[in-house]
Structures are given as C-alpha cells and as structure tokens.
Amino acid sequence: MVDFKGIRDFVGDSEGAYPPVFAGRRAELEALSYAAGDTWRRFRKMDSSHLSKRTRIVHGAPGAGKSTLLRELARHLHAAEAETGQPRLLYTTSADFSQNTCKILARLENLARLDADSWRERLKSVASRVSWSANLGPLGASLDSGNPLPGRPRNIGELEDRLPAERWQAPVVLAIDEFQNIAGSPRLPELRETLQSLHEAGFGLPVLLVVAGLGNTPAIAGEAGLTRGLTKIGIGCLEAEEARGLVRGWCRHFGIEPKGHDARLDKLTGSTDGWPRHLHFALQALADGLLGPGVKGRLSEVDWSCVMDRNLQLRLDYYRDQQSPEMRDSAYLVGAVLRGLELDNSRGGVKNSIRRMAGSQLDTRWDLPAGMDVDEFAGHLIHRGALQEDDNGEVMCPIPSFRSFLVERGEPVPELEHKPPAPEPKPVDQNLLRYDDTSDSPSPGGW
Predict the structure, then answer these.
(1) 398, 389 Cβ separation under 8 angstroms
(2) pTM of structure
C-alpha cells in the first residue's frame, strides 16, 4: 500500500530533515565505528597516551550529508550488540556546545555512568517514544536523563572529579556538528581549553571527539586548538550504485514498486551526480509527481517530463543559493580558477591561479571581492562548496554540475598558462608567487 501521508510529509521536509532511507557511506561508518570501539580498547590498557590525539573531522560541502552521517552513526552504534563498552553517541551542534558547555558535559557524564543493562533499557524506552529519524538533540536528552550528581561539570577536570575514569561504563562519542561556526563564538578561548582536553585526553577519559562541518573545518579545528593527530574524513558524491540503491529504497519505503521503471529512475538518479542534496531534490520532484491528479502513486502514470523539470529547477535554485554575492561579483575569476584546476589542482596552484588572474582585465568581474585577499577568497570558495581539499592535498570542485554552472557563468579564458594574461602584463612581485607549504598555521581563509 502506498504511504501517501509519508510522501506528502517528505515533500514538505526541510533541508535538515533525516532522510527516510540511508545508503552508502559504509567505509566512513565503519571507520568511525571502529574508532569508537578502539577508544574503549585503548582505555582498558589504562594508559591515557593511547587515547591522545584521535579526533575525527568529517568535512564536506553544503549538502554532502554530514549531519545525516552522524545521525546514522548513532543508530549504527546504538544498534550494535556488545557485552561491555558499547559506544554511546552524544550529538550536539557548535552553537549548543558553545552556549551550553556545562549542560553538554553533564549529558556526557550521565551517558558514561550508565551500566550496560541500564543502557539497554534506556535505549528500549526511548526507541518506543522517539523515532530514530528525530533530531538527536532531544533524543540525546532522553537517553542521558538518569540521576546525575547535583550541579554540572564546568570543564573536563571537574567531569573527571565527578566520574573518575575507572567508573566509566562505556566510551562516549561526542559529535559536534556545524563545527565551522565555532570560530565565531565569543567563548572560543574557553571552548579551546575544553576541546584541547578532549583531544589530548590528558585526564584519560574514553571520549572520542568527532567534529563535522564545511570544507574549511580542518582549518577551523586548528584555530580551536585541535592540532596534530587529526584524522580527516572528507565526504562527497555517492557512488552510482549507492545512489541507485537509495532511489529504489526510497520507492519501496513508501510502498511503490520500482520494477519495470529502471530507465526513468536511472535517468533521474544520473542527473544528481550522486550528490546527497541533489538526490533529495530529485526524490522530492518524484514525490510531487506521484501525488499528481490521477497518478495514485503509480510510476507508470507519472509525468516524467514535469519531474525532470522540477528536479532541474530545484538544483538551479541550490546553485544560485551557493553562489554568494562575492562569487557573482567575481564570476569571471571564479570560472577561471575552476578551469585552472585541470592544470594544477594543488593548494599552492589554486592560490597562484587566483593571484595571476585577479584584476587581469578591465571588467570588474575579474577582481577579487572587496575586502578579500587571496587566502580569504580561496577560503570563501571552500566555504561555499565550490572547492574542497581532499586528504591528499588535492583541490577539486566536489559537485561536477556545480562546477559546470559556475564555469558557464565565467568568461572563457583564452589560455591557461602559468604567466600573466595578455596583452599587457602587470609587474608581479615574485615573492607573491612563492607558496610556503611548510607552515603548520592555518590561514584565516582556511588555508
């Protein structure tokens, strides 16, 4: 039976809603799950040095599915069977962590003090009242309610005083989402101390810190005092088979049989690049089609041309939203930088491309945005999802169709050689062309 109410609810879901079907990200989930379990194994060796500097950074462009991955990790960990030391995940955002640090530490304490039997009973109780698709903020509050000591720990030292390491019943994964925003917190100096204590495990507590955010999050982590020993997990497009499985899983979830409609479903899936946000748009367009007059939830009656048009419109709206005013003002420069990735996609190559192209023509769309230098402009392109650096230091545009959108809006560059553009080269300070990749200090723009 077709779940029409569920389909209507899906059409009205906001961007941050947990998807009804999860697909892919097996490697990322396994890596994070292993790190959580390994935290307990290392902890039982009773040597805090084994716990030091194990923070994980999940980063990607807007719409990559970072929040969804953290929520799926919670379900993955909480559904696992373990006699002892079953990891527990506490999800929060950088805003909540910044404003309510003591409250978050109190929740962490309560999760860690529950014995295995009490933990399983708590999970059963919460599962009967709260959907796993709910935001894990309320869910976390339900899981860690219990009977804490009076007051709240103000820092990791006080947490250890209240619950010494030997009394911890299991490891806790503290997952902080939207971590890129922590740089703007007026409490950053205080937060830095807490984050460093967790990262360096100076008190020997079995806590795995996982932070998630946009492409500039590794640099923001450095500003927050998290240095050395970081493991970066970049996420991007799903593989073709993963995206294909997601679309068919979505159909079956709502009682729709996809068999016999492979060609049309594959065309819809292929238009998304496997980008999670675009897959969401494609499925919303399909949901609209299934709710159309006389369709009655049958794929054979869907107006596929309208579905594809709606899907395209949603993607274009996303591109326009991601193209900031600064990017529009410097549209030709943005297009040239993205084209230049074909010649040199190193971090230094991107910066040199910006230096070489910026202000090279009379049209102001070749200029750097007002008030931005090269580092800040590069960081801005990362923040907006136009660029992303992988774990090997190579830079790319994580969404192929977004790259095409931006390049098409940039004036074609006649030649992309490593020299100032003709006809009248400007004198260039050679010191600007030397890129120092030896510094450990992140630049303000993310590089």
Answers:
(1) no
(2) 0.81
